[in-house]
Amino acid sequence: MKLRDIRKQVNDFRAMDAEKLVDQLAQLKKEQFNLRFQQATGQLQSTARVGEVRDQIARIKTILREKRPTQSV
Predict the structure, then answer these.
(1) Spatial separation of the C-alpha atoms in residues 27 and 72, rounded to whole Å
(2) Nearest-5° angle of CA 41, CA 1, CA 12?
(3) Are 28 and 53 in contact (CB under 8 A)?
């Protein structure tokens, strides 16, 4: 994935509200599980997709953390 594609994806994620991000996160985690299952059974076609999904999950988690209001202690 090229840098401009990643930046566009991050901007799209930032435009979403937290509820949509959580739904997207759940969908990506399901896909990650399915990819790991396919890899274990030897049926995985695109091994690069495993890393892409992992990176997208990390990006969404980061953006969700950014959107969380800061709490003063």
Answers:
(1) 33
(2) 105
(3) yes
Ordered alpha helix ranges (H), the chain: 3-15, 18-41, 48-67
Tens-of-pLDDT digits for all 73 residues of the chain?
A: 789 999 999 999 999 999 999 999 999 999 999 999 999 999 999 999 999 999 999 999 999 999 887 765 5
pTM exceeds 0.85 for this model: yes
In terms of CATH architecture, what is 3-67?
Orthogonal Bundle (1.10)
> CA-to-CA distance for 46 and 50, rounded, in angstroms?
8
